[in-house]
Amino acid sequence: MKKCFLLLLIAPFTLFGESLTQLIELSKNNKMIDSSRISIESTKDSYESVQNAYLPQFNIGASYQRTSKETSGVPHSKGVVKGSVDYVLYDGGKKYNTYDSFEASIEEEKNSLVNQKNQIALQVTNYYFNYLSLEAQKEAKLKEIEQLEAQYTRLKRFLDAGTTTEDEVQKIISRVEIAKVDLHEIELNIQTILHNLEYVVGKSVSIEKGSSVNEYNSDKKQLRADIKALEYKLEALLANAKATKSGTLPTITLNDTYAKNDLNYNTSTYSSISDEYDQNIASVNLSWKIFDFGATSREYQAAYKQYLALKSQYEYEKNKASVDLKLAQKSYDIGKLKIKSAKAGLNAANSAYDAIKAKYENGLVDNVTYLEALSEKYDAQSALKVALYDLEIKKANIIYYSGEKIEEFVKWEK
């Protein structure tokens, strides 16, 4: 009974293929995405380590020493146990600049991960609808071959009866062979897409029809995740430059050391000296590098120039993203016109085929004219479906370039 229940649970995913939503969900297990996730965790751990390093540091230690010549200040042997606390009171602002750099880097990596997922979702969307386009072409080609073979059977009877010529039959055979070659190429392209999908999602998949992409209708303007990532990277580089510059400012530290001393004198002259005592020393220390031949200044300039270089790249990518969105919208408008044109073409091809077929079967036109009409009919059928599926890809492009998540706009209707 349990086995039957388990089979019922698995059946929907084995008897049927994956929808676009399922493929996008599977793609989140992509190894590159896993790598990015681990990288974020690594940066978070490094940030936590730096934060902990700025907390008070507690140390303990012990020492034992012997001397060959005892004096009043140097006993024959001495044991010391001590503990200390160190804390940086001020480091020129380097601490907080370092914190800002890590926080910006983490946000950069998070946005890069969001963009990476969305890019893969766009890639999967392209594979999905290109697969459906090829399946539509395959279906049309099979119907074309079926019609050609039916005509071949018909002409073969006429040839046997002596009412047609050998060359007429050979033309049909030639068309059948050409159509079969086209079919093999289509099937190869289908298998290539399935293999590419397997590489992206990490498992062998099959594809179920029925998915589509909602149109994106919004005047809301927002940056793509990859552009946001560049913004955070800019913040991180600027914080790094400021942290470098803080090297020209003083550093103030606090130290408190407690020590327990045990002195052992062999000479009776010094025996009156206390051989055991406790000592606590507290100190505030200042360190200020006032001259280093311009090394710190050069280091700051180098870090700041990295910031300026990325800033130029950021402005370029931001403008490019705006142009990409406009081009995607223009491409979508053209895609709708292609569908309208493909529908008109299909109507014309169907009408022409019906008329030519009737004439051909009554001997009013030759088979060359008929074969051309037949090819045009099925080419027009697949062209319309290709245009429809291509429009779904163009919708996904607009969503991506608008900075939205593609998976939130995918729907499935069986």
Describe the fold and architecture.
With 414 residues, the protein is of the alpha+beta class. The protein has a single domain, classed as Outer membrane efflux proteins (OEP) (Up-down Bundle), CATH 1.20.1600.10. The chain is 65% helix and 14% strand. It has 8 helices and 6 strands. The chain has helices at residues 2-14, 20-27, 31-53, 94-161, 166-201, 225-245, 295-361, 367-401, and strands spanning 57-66, 77-90, 211-213, 251-264, 276-287, 410-412. The protein has a 4-stranded antiparallel sheet with strand order 1-2-4-5, with no helix packed on it. Strands 3-6 form a two-stranded antiparallel sheet. The longest helix is centred in the first third of the chain and has 68 residues, at 94-161. The two termini are 29 Å apart.
Task: Describe the secondary structure blueprint for this structure.
Layout: H1 2-14, H2 20-27, H3 31-53, E1 57-66, E2 77-90, H4 94-161, H5 166-201, E3 211-213, H6 225-245, E4 251-264, E5 276-287, H7 295-361, H8 367-401, E6 410-412
Antiparallel strand pairs: 1-2, 2-4, 3-6, 4-5
